[in-house]
Specification:
Blueprint (H helix, E strand, L loop, with lengths): L3 H28 L1 E6 L4 E4 L1 H7 L3 H4 L14 H12 L4 E8 L5 E12 L5 E10 L1 H16 L2 H5 L4 E7 L5 E7 L1 H5 L4 H4 L10 H14 L5 E6 L5 E11 L2 E11 L1 H15 L9 H18 L3 E8 L2 H8 L1 H16 L7 E6 L2 E5 L6 H12 L6 E3 L2 E3 L3 E8 L6 H18 L4 E3 L4 H20 L4 E9 L4 E12 L5 E2 L1 H11 L2 H21 L7 E4 L10 H11 L7 E6 H6 L1 H14 L2 E7 L6 H4 L6 E4 L1
Parallel strand pairs: 16-17, 19-21, 21-22, 22-23, 23-24
Antiparallel strand pairs: 1-2, 1-5, 3-4, 4-5, 6-7, 6-10, 8-9, 9-10, 11-13, 11-16, 12-13, 14-15, 18-19, 19-20
Length: 622
Amino acid sequence: MIDNLEKCQFNKDIQEIMKPLLEIKQAIDESTIVVITNKQGKIMYVNQQFEKISKYKKSELIGHTHRILNSRVHSPQFFKKMWSTILQGQTWKGEICNKAKDGSFYWVSATIIPFLDQYQEPYQFISISNDITKHKEAETQLKLSLENDFLQTIRQLQNLIFKIKRNGQGEFIFTLFEGKLAERYSLSTKLVKNQPLKNFFPPHACHKIKKELTKVFQQETALFEVRLNDKEYFYCSLSPNVKNGKVLEVVGSAVDITEYKAVEKQIHHLVYKDEITGLPNQRSFSRDIEKRIKKSLERNQQFGVFIININRFRRFNEMYGYITSNYLLKSIGNRLAQYAKHGTKIYRFNDAVFIVLTKRMNEIKTILETANQILSAFDKPFLMNYQENLVTANIGISTFPKDGQDEIELLKNADIAVHIAKTHKDSSIAQYNVHFSTQLQERIKLEKNIYKALKSKQFTMYYQPKVDVKANTITSCEALIRWPQKDGSFIPPGSFIPVAEETGLIIPLSEWIIEAVASQYATFQKEGIKDIPISINLSAKHFQKRNITKDIERILKKYNMPAKSLQVEITEHMLMENEQEAMKRLYELKEMGILIVVDDFGTGYSSLNYLRTLPVDILKID
């Protein structure tokens, strides 16, 4: 049983589910410029910071392209190269000068991230920008100050301004180090002049800066980010000072983008993480499986893709509402996350589907063992609205390279496998094979035939008597549905009942059974057969119908069948997975006078103490 502490945590967890998006939006609106553009370049969304810096209202921007902001500072080739990059599904980073509504120019450091569809094609783009207008103005002021040797002006700039040259040993040394950012670290030209980078920056930062400096001393320019520590980030620009074809020194500037990087991290979380469970999402899966395929080909290894389908999730959503259902998803995600280790990753795709990308392995047997371990996460019930509910799942498996060479093929075949698993029983695993497509087609055909059989009344009922051997009399009988074929054979119930359960056809089929049984009871009475109770089996889905009691009552009245002559059989498993609704319906049936029979007792979690809370008349023990 789940203790009281976990129940107290329930309400807190629900609140946590609702917070992240609002917090991220607030952080973005306060510090970052965000615009979303479709594939045709039309603006679909802008945030408050975008309106503020561009001086356009949102209504003036939506539906227009970025030409409305074109400052003509950049060449057509600049934008052509940018679009070529993002249309290939790659992230673009750079500096852009835009023209505001009032005619003023402003600069932004932009990162454009493409959103990819299931075919890895971009369908829209999000641009995350940081206002660097002051930074660019600082560069302009720097050039003026250098030309006029106006050091005092440099010291008033908000950014870090520096110059670097090579000494006799080829080592990079500072010759200028000024600005408000320098003051923050209590540094100045006087303190750093002729000193190497390693005296002021950590090794990883030195390595990055030296790499960029090497390029600039070859007469290139450089724009890059550098991490000082776990919290602080700088955005740097480097330009060569060339004389007579030789680079004499490098002039650079740096701006603090720590706050911007924090928001960028939140955006990354929003793009690549599921906001409810915190697990990686489908976008993350597409990125990761591409890398996994490449590594597996290089090392001649295989890996598995699992589709985990949560059974009857839509019913949970209808019964408890989306907040509680989200809590269930979070609980499922927490359990599954325990298996995300040693290279195996867990993802959430949509409401009822989770995906597993296993680590690279050498044996199929290991992949199957992993699937069984993950399925065991559903062995214990989940807490919903302070009540325990048994949640089941099925797993479909495809393996690389046997069952597919790319993401789409592997997902398609895993999906076929999970549909086959669902035809077996709850909590089952199916590994894809080439015959599954045929089986799935046959299953779809069977579903259509069940529908036709209901319309044309092809089903028939058989009645199995229960005999008192001492008195040699029939005490009751059990109604058994049969589906005869034209050749005299029968399709067994074990083949068509599970399909009817999954598709929802079990509801009209069960209603037909109840009417057929009541009609047969009336026939027995006319033939002089004494009052014999008849038992029927009801599906868990039938207990989802709030008017099931009224339906049965209407049919019994139609054929003058006493309620006490009808016995309703349910399974222990059905009680556990749908306890709250099942209890309501059972008590309603009991009040009508219908006898309640629990079948397969002892195969689940029930105890005799639990049975005392149920309106049970007859118990069948397995």
